[in-house]
Amino acid sequence: MKDKYLNFNNQKKQAETKFLIGVSITALGVLLALIGNVNKNALMVVGIIIAIVGFIIVMIGYGAFASLKRNFKDTVLKKMFSDALPGITYEPINGLSQNIVYETGHLKRADRFHSEDFLGGEVDGVSFISSDVKLEERHVQHTKNGTRVYYVAYFIGRIFRFEFNKEFVGTLQVLEAGSPLNRGYKKVHLESVDFNKKFKTYATEEITAFYILTPDIMEAIYALERRNPGRIGLSFHGDHLFVSINNNRDTFEVQMFRKIDDSMVEEFKKDLLVIKDFIMTLKLNTNLFKIKEDKK
Amino acid sequence: MITLLSTGAIIAIVIVALVLIVVFWFIGVMNQLRQLELKVQEAESGIDVALTKRFDMLTKMLQTTKGYAKHEAETLEKVVKWRGGIPKDATLKDKEEFFNQMNQVAQGINVVVEKYPDLKANTVFLELQTAVANTEEHLQAARRLYNANVTRINTIIVTFPQSIVANAIHMEKKPYFEAEEAKREDVKFEF
Fold it and tell me: Is A205 on the interface with B (CB under 8 A)?
């Protein structure tokens, strides 16, 4: 059977080979440098030079792999996404802005922010935007040998913003973990014991929680949580529903040492269709409660 | 210092401490019950607001329907007991009845709509339909919030030892806002 992704797999193999050769040479260089250091001879200098050469080869291999990933997204994924959900936009190098991410109200400001794989458009009349987001916190460690600065990621996952189909007062947050960052929220106890066990519900107006979280919607959120591993957070604010899934995953990424085949592409499609799943399961496409203005 | 106190004094201190603990606990439970009672009252006002809104919307809908089906609309108007809205002295039972009557009117309008396709196409009517659906959602939310608060207060009232405080301040179990009957029954309209 003909490999549809033969070109990509060949390029990938070349990049991986360079990467592996680079790693091996670096390891050999480090080993020689260590032996040279023990014996106090010129082997140490030779080892360092070999390690540097090896590292350069690693970087060349990695660079080739990164370029292949971009190319794959631009050609294969863009087309596949627009076929699966016509009318949507996919921009691999762009992402959601910091303002939109923090509008969720439960993600604290990061010291290092990164977002990519922007998706936007309309599915079944519901407009949405989403992207992969990585938020990192800066840590400073003081030791005898000096100060060490490092970053720890506290959110790696996806953030979605959907147009919401109900008008309501205040803000509501349904969180699997954590709590709202702003003050003025009251914890709400809903009728479902199971729902209260799984999620913590916070609202500025108690009635809003009962208005938005009907028994159907509570069940839908529960089902979505089961289908999407990771810590899920929903924030209903203004005209929008924000969804964050902290699943420690970078979606739509080709992996090193894994052949590009239909199963990998299917996984990407499944990740894309999460958007549609949210819209359908939460019935965001139901235009029962809001008179929509004509879009010109 | 303690060795200087007689056994009687120690017993007296322990008794006072225990009494104080009981008094503080009693005040705590009493305040909790009063606060919850207030929340139940607030939630009941929420039901009133939602009922009034729904009544207004249904009245507007009936007015629009009159242009197409005068007789049917007038028949439906008679179903509702309080045409001027909810009286101030209405009990929860009265409100439940009012709610069920409005459900009947809403179902009746749906029957009329099926008979008059022109009405279905009327823009004002369609907007009112959306508004009515929205007020129904608000009413359901108000009802659920009320019942959730009633569950919380009733749980405390029937749980020992908090039930002692509830009895002492003459607090009784609160009634739920039951509104399922109309849903279970199929209402038939003969115009």
Answer: no
